[in-house]
Request: fold
Amino acid sequence: MQVVELKTLRKALRNPPTLLGIFLILAFFFLAILAPFIATHDPLAIDVFNRFQPLSKRHLLGTDELGRDVFSRVIYGTRLTLQAGVTIVGIAFVVGTILGAIAGFWGGWTETLIMRTVDVFMSFPALILALAVAAALGPSLIHAVIALSVVWWPWYTRLVRGQILSVKESVYVEAGKALGASSVRLLFRHVLPNCISPIVVLATLDMGYAILTAAGLSFIGVGAQPPSPEWGAMLSTGRNYITTAWWYPTFPGIVLSLTVLGFNLLGDGFRDLLDPRWRR
Reply:
């Protein structure tokens, strides 16, 4: 894996969009970790006598149709949203990287089997396949995460395989073989670390897309279900009251957009940081 020089790191950190992305992501992780201390109310507590209360000191972002505090629900929703995104991308990253490394390094019938499986998965629209899997499993956030993980890994497999094919013919790999190094050692100690940069960039960019897609599944009813304070589910319910309680769907939508923006900016920053042409 390439070592990022201090000079390059400083150059990247002077990039305003990258700094904004880092700030947004750190802020949302901070909210997720400290949600019990930041939230002003129980996110599931119902108070029918305070339905659709506007923004006030008591309810910073107003209340919903059951009198629940929108601010507290948005804060706790950060946990669910980030957990979903990290799980989806994490599973896809691990499974796709292992399968892509095996296919690219050893080739033969193993490569044929893995890549034909990848072709089968990629022949279907990812969202449609995820919807089918989620519908078969039943509506819940966990099932939506499983469904998206099932359709997400092929992109990593294809990317890693291509990177492995371009690196495994390098002189240092041939030298390692001549010195008697095992194939497993060469792959995981020397070849794969030199292919990791584009995978990290893809994973960072995918975080925003995974979060948005998971929220989309919740929005159409196959993901998180009420009374879960998940942002997509809140948007789905809140859209029915947008003319009478504009704050209900607005703030979950804003934080969802900012989260996706943060990961996109961070991914662009990583791409520039790990691109040798930009580093020159």
